[in-house]
Amino acid sequence: MNYNNSNSSSIPKDIVLLAVRVFVGFAMLSHGYPKLQMLLAGGKIEFFDFLGMGPLVTLILTVIAEFVCSILLILGLFTRVSLGFLIFTMVIAGFVVHGADPFEKREMSLIYLSVYLLLMIIGAGKVSVDHLIERRKRASDW
User: Fold this and answer.
1) Beta-carbon neighbour count of residue 75 at 10 Å?
2) Residues with Cβ < 8 Å from 115, sequence gap 6 or more?
3) Predicted pLDDT of residue 3
């Protein structure tokens, strides 16, 4: 199969994009869910405050990125907007929160960052809610 030809079938690419979105989305959920539990527990919140707006606000923003945006990424809904939040979060995690740590402490956030950047450039693929919405929009245009 010639992958350089824009007319060739994109089924393998779209299956891989779906698999990557689902895997990375669920993997990030495993980081976001404990933070959501911390937020809902109602106790004293001790969380890195990179914005200077307090640990509660920072935790809320992190939960939105790591939990909510991961679900949206899995669905392929508002994919690029969700990736924007996830990219920002991983930049902060990799270069600010763990900036002074050895590489092995930063590695995970940098791997997530690189996958998110690739998805931002390539897009969600045809097996996504975004694609269904776009197809429906095109079909309704006169």
Assistant:
1) 17
2) 20, 24
3) 43
Query: Which pair of tokens denotes residue 123?
Result: 């897009």
d(CA 133, CA 139): 10
- Residue 90 tokens, joined: 């991983």
User: Which of 124, 133, 131, 135 has the alpha carbon at shortest distance from 13?
Assistant: 124
The DSSP secondary-structure symbol of 10 reads -
Return the C-alpha torsion angle 52, 98, 124, 16, nearest 10.
Answer: -170
User: What is the C-alpha separation between 142 and 131, in angstroms, rounded?
Assistant: 19
Percent of the chain's residues with pLDDT above 90: 80
Which letter, b or e, does each residue of 93-126 get, where b requires 16 or more Cβ atoms within 10 Å of its Cβ? bbeebbeeeeeeebeebbebbebbeebeeebbbb
Q: Which residue has the tokens 């404990």?
A: 34
Reported pTM: 0.89
Give the model confidence (pLDDT) of 82-98 as tens digits.
Answer: 999 999 999 999 999 99
Residue 6 has pLDDT above 70, yes or no: no
